[in-house]
Structures are given as structure tokens and as C-alpha cells.
Input
Amino acid sequence: MSKKNESKVREPLFHIAKRTSMVWWKAWLIRGVAILASLVVCALIIVLLTKQNPLEVYASMFKGSFGTKRKVWILLQNMAILLCISLAVTPAFKMRFWNLGAEGQVLIGGLASAACMFYIGDRLPNLLLILIMFAASILGGIIWGVIPAYFKAKWNTNESLFTLMMNYIAIQLVSFAIMVWVPSGSSVMGVINSSTSAGWIPDLFGQKYLFNILVVAAVTALMFVYLKYSKHGYELSVVGESENTARYIGINVKKVIIRTMVLSGAVCGLAGFLLVSGTNHTISKTLAGGNGFTAIMVSWLAKFNPILMILTSFLIVFLQRGAGEIATNFRLNESVADILTGVIIFFIIGCEFFINYEIKSTRAKHKEGK
Output
């Protein structure tokens, strides 16, 4: 066969290679450039769709979070709850246990608190009632987290589907409880114990949300130490890398799976307690507000680092509140605000590709070989 008839394999001009590491300041520089690029794209979208001045829209977004003292506190409260749920899913995700059931675990925790407020709210001193609510919420979250963990450890079931379906069961349990507690059939639970404030976390230094923020700050510090410096944190990391390796070095994989989901469920239950006792003073099917799924993105963007999650949770909440302010001030369809938020998040997620991978020229490679 002649050489002319031989098929030549053409190498691509470029190929993608995984980076071994990147200096931290370069990674954050890439993220900063991505955010600036997203703002430019959003400005073009604003001009094309709404004919508004992009600078005025961005100023409105900023005012939506920092325009008044009350808005700042609401921002910090929303950020604290999102951060709390993000901390809850992080140990499981680091272990490669894909816990999609944070919404349900928060709901069950909140339902346990609401039940305590409804049934024994007028029988106990407020401090004792709050402690019982706290314990009940933690226990409720643990139960809802351990059920799929046990099935995963025992029979290797698919934890993603299992935890996802547990969300719907939790929603129906909350709906049933509201139907029992609200005889009018309105399916809306009003403020519980509005006349006595039984089970309500009292204001701290005159601020309604300060207690929640301080509790989540403490949980963040503890979770950072747990994951980075404790034996349990090391074991769940090893299980996440390779279950076979974990078994080889003597780690009880089943025990680690269940123990980690106990922790995740407990922190989700804590979030439910804070929402019911410290924020809403009631229960509803939308108690978690979608944060159980948003928390996955917060945790992933921070690379499972609890300290970095403070920044990522702030960014997400800032964008959410800013989008709402834009829709209100400029009388825009909420979809426009959601588009702007989606574009910014898309750029932030997309820039992680350039942090983890590099694009190399095949020709340059051949020149180096010569």
C-alpha cells in the first residue's frame, strides 16, 4: 500500500489538559475577570431588552441589599440560612454521597419545631420550650438524613433518587400537619403563638436575626475544623476518594456514610429550627425556599471549604435580592431579573473550567519536542 493511500490521523490544533495546581491569586483573578465579563454581557442584555441605563440597574441591584439597615439585616439573615444548609450538604458531598434531600431535612426539622410550639407552647417556660424545639429539630433532621444513608450503606441504593424522593414525603407531611392544625382548610398556617411568643427566639441586642447569624457563624467555624483537622473529616475524605482504599486501610465505610449523614441531617434540622423559631414563627411547604438545591452550588463553588462558602453564599443572596429589586424598581418582568442572575452565575461557574484546566496548542507541543 502506498503512502498516498494511507490515511493520515490529524491531531487537533488544541487540547485540554488538567492543571496540577494554580496560585491562589491567579484563580481569584480569573474569577474577577469572569464577573466583570458577566456584567458587560448583562449590560448589553439590559440595553437590548429594556432600553434602561445599565449603571442605574446595577445601582438598583446594590440598593436591594444595602439600601437600608433593614435590607442589610435581611441580606445577612438569608445568607446565614443558605450558608447553614450549604454547610449541611458539604460533608456528604465531600464523601461523594449526593445528598439532594436538604430541602426535606430542613422541612422535617422545621415541622418538629412547629409541632412543639403548637402542642406545648403554653405549658413550658420559653427557654425550656426553645431547648426542646432545638433537640426535636436536630433529631428530625437526623432521622430524615439517616434513612437514605442506611439504605445506601446496607444495599447500595442510589442516594440521589432516595434523598430527592424524601423531599416530597416531607412536603406531604407538612401539608398534612397544616391541614390538621388549621381547621378552616385554608392550607396556610398563620403565625404560631402570636399572642404569647412562646417558642420564639428573643431578639438579641434589639436585632431579630442576630441570634441566627451568630449560630451559623459558630457552625461554620466548627465545620471547618471538623473537615480539615478531625479524624472523622479525614475518613470521609478518604471514602470520597475511593471506598476500596478506605476499606484497605481499615476504615468502616458503612459507619462513615451513616455518621456523615447524621451530621448533615442535624445541621439541616438546625436550619429548620432557626427558620421556624427565629425567623418565620410558622411552618409552610416552602420553608426552605429552594435553598436546599441552591446550597449545592454554594458548596461546589467554594470547593467544599466552609470559609469560602461565606463568600459564595453572600454572592448568591446578593444576586437574588438585587434581581428582585430590579424587577420592582423598573417594573420589569421577573424573568429579566432572573436572566441577569443566570448570566452572572453562568460566568462564575464557567470560569472554574479555566482554573482547573488549561488549553494547550498541539503545534507548540511539537516544537518543544523538536
About this structure: DSSP finds 14 helices and two strands in the chain. The mean pLDDT is 90. Residues 114 and 299 are 28 Å apart (CA to CA).
